[in-house]
Each structure stands twice: as C-alpha cells, then as structure tokens.
Amino acid sequence: MSKNAETLAALIRERAGSGPVEVGLVLGSGLGHLADKVDGVAIPYEQLDGFPHAGVSGHNANLVIGTLGTTRVAVFGGREHYYEAGRADAMRLPLEVLKALGADRLILTNAAGSMRQDIPPGELMQITDHINFSGLNPLIGEKTDARFVPMGGAYDADMAEAFQQIAAREGITLKPGIYAWYSGPSFETPAEIRAIRTLGADAVGMSTVPEVILARFLGLRVAGFSTVTNMAQGLSDEAISHEHTKAMAPLGAEKLEKLVLGYLTRD
Ligand code: HPA
Asked: Which atom of ligand 1 is the closest one to the Cα of 182?
C-alpha cells in the first residue's frame, strides 16, 4: 500500500467518520445516480491529491462515503479511463485508498456495446470473465512479485450468485457474459467487433478490466456489470456515439440500482 493511500485514507476518515468501509462501487457512464442515494459525505476528487480528474462527461468526480442500504460504502462517481491520458493504472490510487479504508469487495459498473441479440440495449449483463483485448495492463512497472496476479475466478462466484438471487427475486433479467476491453476512445470497427465476438466476448467497452486487475492485485473480491446501451458496431443500424451511450444508460441504470441496493441491504 502506498504512503499516499494511507494519508488519503486518514483524511477521508477525518471527513467521513472512521467506520470501516465494506464495499466500493465504481459507477460508469450515466450510472452515477446511485451516489445520490448514499447517506454520507461527498468529497470532490480534486481535494484528494493524486485522484483522477475524470474529465469524461457523464461521469461525476466525487468520492462519496456513507451508508447505502445497510452497508458502509465508498462510491467512486467517476473513473479515469486509459484513453484519457494513456494511464492503465489511473485507478490504482483510488482502489488502494478503498482497501486502506477497510473494504474487501468492489462492484464495478460500465456502459457497453452488446454482441448478443438476447442482451439488447436497456438490458444488464453480469460480467463473469473478461478478455483484455487492449493488451494493456495496469501492473506494468510494478516491482514486486505480487504483480503476477492469478486471474482465474477474478469475478467472485459468491458475489455473482448473490446478485443472481436478487435479480430473480426482483424479476430482473441478468444474463452472464464475457466483457472485452477495447482501449477507446474511438469506437470499434465492424471487423473488430466480429473479431472480438469470434474470440468469445459478449459485450465490449472501454473500462473496468484495468480496475479488476488492480482489485485482484489488492485482494478485493469483484462483481462487474454492464448496462447495454447499444448493439456493438455492425450489429444494428443504430448510430453509435457517446451522446447515445449517455442517453441510453439510464434504461439499465434503474435495474442496476435495484440490484446493487438489494445486495447492500441485509434483511
Ligand atoms: N463500444 C465501446 N464502448 C462502449 C460501447 C461500444 O459499443 N457502448 C458503450 N460503451
């Protein structure tokens, strides 16, 4: 754990109380409303030295610490993507801080393009595994042997099962699938989508995978969800754009919020 993370964790405890955080959440494009439901304290990233400047519209750059459901959480309203500054490890410090605050679990959400006709826009996908199509890695440069992180079971089976049970109870369709990380910021070509599909991916997006690698490096258990905002390039006539992503994300966001709240609320 870096000294910087310990220092920031101490500062956050001073502002938001010292009760240990249990679960961290990273909210993707258009999925930030969950942060408003936390009973707690919002700290702008700019007051947290070394935190990203999440400059992508549709992302809200606050760290919110407090209670959601019955669980003490840390909600990262914005993430820095690789495509913003070429830093695959941009979320390392925030996730180190999460760990330093006591969390053992991380829930990651994103907006994604679907390559499955049975997971159309507005639907959710539970990420059960990923393909690092970018070939980039946030642990490049890490000096310790801890860098050799096993990635089998990176998406925690027990967490996935808990979410499946909540989905069934709430009547929410939550199909499992494989997420492919494409660096962005340009969207994929139709040929790239055919390639990724052939490789076994079900959804594609520009985030999440580096955070999963970092989370496993830090020993956090992970659950990941895609809200499908569009069919991937070439699979429908609909025009793909960031505006479209932001406009479509709320369709799945409501269901995702229900799932996450269900998970964070103990009976
Ligand atoms: N590709 C990559 N990222 C995305 C997409 C997509 O089609 N939709 C939303 N985020």
From this structure: 2
Query: What is the span of the domain harbouring residue 176?
Result: 3-67+79-141+149-264
Dihedral angle computed from the Cα positions of residues 181, 160, 218 and 17, in that order, rounded to the nearest 10 degrees: 120
Closest CA to 92 of 218, 220, 225: 218
Q: Which region holds residue 129: left if phi is over 0, alpha if psi is between -120 and 50, else beta? A: beta
Please report which confidence band the pLDDT of residue 267 belongs to, taking 50, 70 and 90 as the band edges. Answer: confident
Ligand 1 pocket, 193 CB below 6 A? no
For residue 203, the cross-strand partners are: 114, 179
Is 73 among the domain residues?
Answer: no
Q: What is the pTM of this model?
A: 0.96
pLDDT tens-digit readout, 107-137? 999 999 999 999 999 999 999 999 999 999 9
Residue 91 lies in a domain: yes
- 81, pLDDT greater than 70: yes
Ligand 1 in reach of 245 Cβ (< 6 A):
yes
Q: Closest residue (by CA) to atom 3 of ligand 1?
A: 205
> What's the CATH code of the domain at 175?
3.40.50.1580
Q: Closest residue (by CA) to atom 9 of ligand 1?
A: 112
Could you tell me if the CB of 109 is within 6 A of ligand 1? no
